[in-house]
Each structure stands twice: as structure tokens, then as C-alpha cells.
Amino acid sequence: MTACWVESGVNALSPKVTCPRFDPAAALLFVINSSSGAHDIRVKCAVIESALSAHGRRGELRVCSPSELQQVATEAAALAVSRGSAVVAVGGDGSLSTVAQAAHAAGCPIGVIPYGTFNYFSRTHGIPTDPEAAAQMLLNAQPIPVQVAAINHRLFLVNASLGLYPELLQDREAYKARFGRSRWVAFVAAFVTLLRAQRRLRLHIEIGGSQRDVQTLTLFLGNNRLQLAQLGAEPADTLAGTPGHGSMAALMLRPIGTLAMMRLMLHGAMGQLGEAAGVESFEFHRMVVKPRLSSPRKEVVVALDGEVARMRWPIDIRVLDKPLFLLQARGAANRDSGSGMGA
């Protein structure tokens, strides 16, 4: 086994951490989402090939479409385990989440070359947002354990949510398909979704030995301190560790009117969401969510790291005992290399 080194705070994940086998001389397997980011696929491949050549390293580049990503990631992770190598996700947070699911299940390390819009996971763990710098750092990195979470056994790295936020993501994709991909299109889609938000979730929540019934427009689950800090929505410190390093954060938005929703949007834009009326936040390690009233609907729409899926009730959200092993340069964690909001 490869010796692991651990950043301050990561011990909250597990008292004993055993790294997977990792041979720095083995060929890395790069899983490249051809649709992530604005860069041409040839540019992405050239960045990787240049870094490999400069370091005298070997690698295999596997380019795939979004529909092929899960299968390609699973195959690459299995091969990485057999070689004592690592799989490298090349794309945004959504692509990274899919590759991380495969790496976590197989038990191999994962590297990241970010090409997304916000790249919260990469920035939180000190990975440069510039792909060339990230590729160079990757080839001098070692595996370290980082916290991941799951919702009904589906892994997520940054956030997951029920209710309003999945609707926002679906509307955003519809607007992008009609008007093109830009931040302005995404902003208009979000504005329209929030202003017509009326559907309430009536939920029964179980956390440890406590239970409660709530009404909310959305239940947002945060596993990334950087995103929570930028929203101004960090919960009070009530548990060991912090969101992303031992615990998770939950945000609930109580049903509010149109004017209150506009004020809420302003608070979020200013990084003061936690100060807005109608927003409740708290820490947890595990939460089970059920519909409060019997319903013919057996499934609920859930968003995970910017992707939308359907899941059956009950919804089980937890910090996973088994960490993800991320290729990271020593001392790189928490060096935020950019700013932005969203997922």
C-alpha cells in the first residue's frame, strides 16, 4: 500500500486511513468529457500530452460524450486498480462527480483537471483552475483522503438538493437549449424559476434520534465549505468537523412571497444568504427524509453536483465513512484560486 499523508482536519473522516496502491510510474487514465467547458477537445488533449511529455510520464486519454461518461469512467477505474494507477477526471463538477463515483467504488485514486464554470471541488482542494497548471501539479501529486457524501448511495462532492433547486437546473438547461450557453441565460432562467416557485415540499426529517415535520421550497445539502462561504450560508458549528471536513450542511427555504423571494436572491448575490428571513441552516452527519403525507409518487427529482436524477423515497443522505483519494500536492488544500457562485 502507498503511504498516505493527511491534511489538517481530514482525520475527522476516519481514525485510520489506508491508501489504495499507487505507482507514480504507472500510466494515468484520463477520462475527458468532450462537452465540458469552452475549450476545444484538441486543446484539452494537447494540455495533457504536453504535461506528460514534460514529466516523462505515460497516460491514456479516453475521450467520451456525456452519455458514455459513466461507462468509460467505470472501465478506466477498474483498469487503474489493476495497474496501481489513478483515473483523472477532465471536466466540470458534474463530470468529476461521475468519475469520482467510479473511482470511489473501485478504490483507486482520482486526479482532476478542471474545465467547468465554478469548479468548487477543485478550488476547495487547492487544484488550480487553469488546466495547464492543474495538469502540471497532478504529475507531482500524492493521494490524500477527502470527504465525500451520498444520497441514496449516489455519491456527490459539492451539493445535492430536493425541490426548487432541481427545478432551477431543469429550467436552466431548457433555456440554454433555446438561447445558448451563457451566464446571462443561466441567470434569467434562475430568476424566472425563483419568481414562480410555489411548490412546497412537506417532509418528515430524521436526524439521529430527533424527528421533525417541515414545509420548504427546497432542501439544499452542502458538502463544500467554499460554496457555503460564498453564499454566506455556513451553519452554526454544532458538530465535530465542518461541512466537507467531518459534517454536512443543510439549508431549508420556507415558503415565501414574490417580494421576499426577490430579497432572498439579493442576499444570495451578496453572499449573505444566511442572514435572509426564511432560511434555516444546520449541520448533520446523516439525515433521512420522507414525504410527510402519503403520495402516489414513489420518486422525487434530486439534483447532485449540477446533474438531475430521480430517486425513490425515503431519501438517505450521509457523510460516507470511506473517503475519496484525491491526487493533490502537499499543502495545496484550501488555496482558493477563483471566485463565483452556483453549481
CATH top-level class of the largest domain: Alpha Beta
Largest sheet: 7 strands, mixed
Return residue spans where pLDDT drops below 50 for at least 5 consecutive residues: 7-13, 334-343
Which term fits the overall shape?
Answer: globular
Please give the share of residues in helix. Answer: 25-40%
Brief description of this entry?
This protein is of the alpha+beta class and 343 residues long.
Question: Could you outline the blueprint of secondary structure elements for this entry?
Answer:
Blueprint: E1 28-33, H1 41-55, E2 59-64, H2 69-83, E3 87-91, H3 93-106, E4 110-114, H4 120-124, H5 131-138, E5 142-146, E6 149-151, E7 154-156, E8 159-163, H6 164-179, H7 183-195, E9 201-207, E10 210-216, E11 218-222, H8 225-231, E12 242-243, E13 246-253, H9 258-269, E14 279-284, E15 286-291, E16 299-304, E17 307-312, E18 315-319, E19 324-328
Parallel strand pairs: 1-2, 1-3, 3-4, 12-13
Antiparallel strand pairs: 5-19, 6-7, 6-18, 8-11, 8-16, 9-10, 9-15, 11-13, 13-14, 15-18, 16-17
Helix pairs in contact: 1-5, 2-3, 6-7
